[in-house]
Specification:
CATH architecture: Beta Barrel
Number of domains: 1
CATH topology: OB fold (Dihydrolipoamide Acetyltransferase, E2P)
Helix content: 10-25%
Number of helices: 2
Number of strands: 7
Shape: globular
Amino acid sequence: MNQIVRIAALPITPKNLFYFYRAWVERVTDADTAHLMEFDFGRMHFEKQVSLRFCHYDGTYLDAWEIFRRPSGLTDAQWAEHRAKGLAGTEFVRGLLPKGTMIILLTNRDLDGTFRDLAGAVFIPQVEGDYIDVAESLRVSGHLKS
């Protein structure tokens, strides 16, 4: 069921050209959140210990199943199913982004103020010159709600 989506080039446009950065993964928290050990702003400027909320390259957030907070209104059986799906998505992302993985990050502003984390689309460079699109890989593998 788990599928990886490879793209031949990053989705660079004149508007987002200056918002691609390198970063290194510390750990994956859940299917749509990770902590970065280092975030490279360029010109020898690095930020340490940054929390990252995954989104699509168009800026829309990923909607993965929760593993820590139980959404209101769920029965015990529904919460168990919800959490199991969240754990499966988390393990999928952990397989893609083990500790120390270098990623290319297209940053996005948190326009509605919902999250205080850095938001961005994550791409994993491959030896062949392709990139793995993490958001699309989650979507086609069925690890996102919609």
